[in-house]
Amino acid sequence: WAGPAGPTRPPAPAPRSLRATRRRARIPWPLLGSPAVRPPPPAVRVCARHAEAQAAARQESALKTLGTDGLFLFSSLDTDGDMYISPEEFKPIAEKLTGSTPAASYEEEELPPDPSEETLTIEARFQPLLPETMTKSKDGFLGVSRLALSGLRNWTAAALPSAVFSARHFQPFLPPPGQELGEPWWIIPSELSVFTGYLSNNRFYPPPPKGKEVIIHRLLSMFHPRPFVKTRFAPQGAVACLTAISDFYYTVMFRIHAEFQLSEPPDFPFWFSPGQFTGHIILSKDATHVRDFRLFVPNHRSLNVDMEWLYGASESSNMEVDIGYIPQMELEAMGPSVPSVILDEDGSVIDSHLPSGESLQFVFEEIKWQQELSWEEAARRLEVAMYPFKKVSYLPFTEAFDRAKAENKLVHSILLWGALDDQSCSGRTLRETVLESSPILTLLNESFISTWSLVKELEELQNNQENLSHQKLAGLHLEKYSFPVEMMICLPNGTVVHHINANYFLDITSMKPEEVESRLFSFSSTFEDPSTATYMQFLKEGLRRGLPLLQP
Ligand SMILES: *[C@@H]1O[C@H](CO)[C@@H](O)[C@H](O)[C@H]1NC(C)=O
Ligand SMILES: *[C@@H]1O[C@H](CO)[C@@H](O)[C@H](O)[C@H]1NC(C)=O
Ligand SMILES: *[C@@H]1O[C@H](CO)[C@@H](O)[C@H](O)[C@H]1NC(C)=O
Ligand SMILES: *[C@@H]1O[C@H](CO)[C@@H](O)[C@H](O)[C@H]1NC(C)=O
């Protein structure tokens, strides 16, 4: 379900159809090691074909020379996919072989220090992923090579427990001029869409961060040395919104989709993708002072990380997936930013650290907020910015049935193995196409109460003796579930009147890559995504069966 990534081991179903997803998902030309593959406009296609043929020939000859594993390693270094290794691309290997890292990194170049500015200390708190929460731990990681997991097992502490930042470097968190309370904006816009596909899995080293990416890259580097501020899959990027405004300060809440590469050559890539990073910053409107900063991976659900690793040399077929739980991944400012150099009345410099080693005490003005937005509302707006399908609200499981009873409506429910509304797995194909298409949004909004749940959560509900009616609801759902995702239409009393498995859904809606390609380039206003049409049919069938059974 998660793409070529198909979870290969858990419960049962054919990984083939799982894998079909992302391939089928509009990447008619998966190119080994190439970055975002965006379909060019039709006019460019003819020349592109020639170039593609040349590239294919070069790949072919490289394969002869290097073998699959060799070509795999080569492609992972050839970040621009031109089949030549530039000195920049060779750098990681040079560093590995010579054991030296160049003293100054690009980050220091982009964020030069200024002795008169304010600085703050940020601490990283990290508790490693709990291996027993991974599905593959059930059989003691049988069939998973130790090498595959070594990057994960090795990651037991934050790379940098503490770091000093300049307040000014947080400027990218400032809103664009005129931004209103609660109106989201993109700090790092997503460059991916349904039609651009995804970035290559086959990479080890993040591209050098540029502009606003630098601060986010540097913050995430405190956890692990190889953060990718842009995820391989949509929705990528970082989105923010103002949650409080005063005369001199802003509170900005943000949501970042980023991931880490835990392996290095010669091992195969291992991707670690937390559901999301969220948090807030309170900073002065000129970004010279940071009052507070916190960034964390939410840990309130039972699973919050998606992991995908390659175990062979081919991009599309040899990938394993699992999900797990990381208890803590958090950055926090140890206090407001303070000037590193203070001038006394005579203009001479006072060190902010007294000779005794104590710091000078600073007194900070109290901030009087003029406008404020609740944390929940801000979180919801950031979520809708990332996931337009969330324009329809998805209620918690039992609440959805209470509401359906009250409004005498049917329940549209999605039961899945991984979460639907963050990056920790599984719902991708569904939500990127079907659930955010406008006819579906309209029908869901008008005629259904929607909910989604994790299998694990419903199993807990089913075992919870406290509420019999909840137990019964969960039981009716689990009865109809098959791995990995089941979409269901239910009566308010929990009876499932119609359901469809995601694999089956994908099989019946799948098109051959050639068909996708020809459709992509012939499409016009009449283009209709077959999966949207099929989902529409599914909902309508649910209404046909369910409506007559609703209480009059
Ligand atoms: C794991 O840690 C050991 C010891 O620090 C190191 O030698 C090894 O290269 C690391 N392996 C990976 C995959 O990072
Ligand atoms: C859902 O319906 C309500 C009430 O009719 C309407 O205000 C809202 O805009 C609709 N939302 C969507 C996403 O269609
Ligand atoms: C069980 O849940 C239902 C619906 O949410 C609620 O109305 C009822 O009071 C609960 N019963 C108990 C015993 O907690
Ligand atoms: C729910 O209601 C329908 C229609 O009234 C009925 O046929 C069905 O047996 C009920 N299911 C349960 C579990 O009570």
UniProtKB/TrEMBL annotation:
<dbReference type="GO" id="GO:0030199">
    <property type="term" value="P:collagen fibril organization"/>
</dbReference>
<dbReference type="GO" id="GO:0071313">
    <property type="term" value="P:cellular response to caffeine"/>
</dbReference>
<dbReference type="GO" id="GO:0007005">
    <property type="term" value="P:mitochondrion organization"/>
</dbReference>
<feature type="domain" description="EF-hand">
    <location>
        <begin position="73"/>
        <end position="100"/>
    </location>
</feature>
<dbReference type="GO" id="GO:0006851">
    <property type="term" value="P:mitochondrial calcium ion transmembrane transport"/>
</dbReference>
<dbReference type="GO" id="GO:1990456">
    <property type="term" value="P:mitochondrion-endoplasmic reticulum membrane tethering"/>
</dbReference>
<dbReference type="GO" id="GO:0002086">
    <property type="term" value="P:diaphragm contraction"/>
</dbReference>
<protein>
    <submittedName>
        <fullName>Selenoprotein N</fullName>
    </submittedName>
</protein>
<dbReference type="GO" id="GO:0014873">
    <property type="term" value="P:response to muscle activity involved in regulation of muscle adaptation"/>
</dbReference>
<dbReference type="GO" id="GO:0048741">
    <property type="term" value="P:skeletal muscle fiber development"/>
</dbReference>
<dbReference type="GO" id="GO:0010467">
    <property type="term" value="P:gene expression"/>
</dbReference>
<dbReference type="GO" id="GO:0033555">
    <property type="term" value="P:multicellular organismal response to stress"/>
</dbReference>
<dbReference type="GO" id="GO:0005789">
    <property type="term" value="C:endoplasmic reticulum membrane"/>
</dbReference>
<dbReference type="GO" id="GO:0046034">
    <property type="term" value="P:ATP metabolic process"/>
</dbReference>
<dbReference type="GO" id="GO:0014834">
    <property type="term" value="P:skeletal muscle satellite cell maintenance involved in skeletal muscle regeneration"/>
</dbReference>
<feature type="region of interest" description="Disordered">
    <location>
        <begin position="1"/>
        <end position="40"/>
    </location>
</feature>
<dbReference type="GO" id="GO:0015882">
    <property type="term" value="P:L-ascorbic acid transmembrane transport"/>
</dbReference>
<dbReference type="GO" id="GO:0022614">
    <property type="term" value="P:membrane to membrane docking"/>
</dbReference>
<dbReference type="InterPro" id="IPR002048">
    <property type="entry name" value="EF_hand_dom"/>
</dbReference>
<dbReference type="GO" id="GO:0031966">
    <property type="term" value="C:mitochondrial membrane"/>
</dbReference>
<dbReference type="GO" id="GO:0055074">
    <property type="term" value="P:calcium ion homeostasis"/>
</dbReference>
<dbReference type="GO" id="GO:0005509">
    <property type="term" value="F:calcium ion binding"/>
</dbReference>
<dbReference type="GO" id="GO:0045454">
    <property type="term" value="P:cell redox homeostasis"/>
</dbReference>
<dbReference type="GO" id="GO:1902884">
    <property type="term" value="P:positive regulation of response to oxidative stress"/>
</dbReference>
<dbReference type="GO" id="GO:0014816">
    <property type="term" value="P:skeletal muscle satellite cell differentiation"/>
</dbReference>
<dbReference type="GO" id="GO:0048286">
    <property type="term" value="P:lung alveolus development"/>
</dbReference>
<dbReference type="GO" id="GO:0070509">
    <property type="term" value="P:calcium ion import"/>
</dbReference>
<dbReference type="GO" id="GO:0034976">
    <property type="term" value="P:response to endoplasmic reticulum stress"/>
</dbReference>
<dbReference type="GO" id="GO:0007179">
    <property type="term" value="P:transforming growth factor beta receptor signaling pathway"/>
</dbReference>
<dbReference type="GO" id="GO:0044091">
    <property type="term" value="P:membrane biogenesis"/>
</dbReference>
<dbReference type="GO" id="GO:0034599">
    <property type="term" value="P:cellular response to oxidative stress"/>
</dbReference>
<dbReference type="GO" id="GO:0044233">
    <property type="term" value="C:mitochondria-associated endoplasmic reticulum membrane contact site"/>
</dbReference>
<dbReference type="GO" id="GO:0061024">
    <property type="term" value="P:membrane organization"/>
</dbReference>
<dbReference type="GO" id="GO:0019852">
    <property type="term" value="P:L-ascorbic acid metabolic process"/>
</dbReference>
<dbReference type="GO" id="GO:0014858">
    <property type="term" value="P:positive regulation of skeletal muscle cell proliferation"/>
</dbReference>
<dbReference type="GO" id="GO:0006112">
    <property type="term" value="P:energy reserve metabolic process"/>
</dbReference>
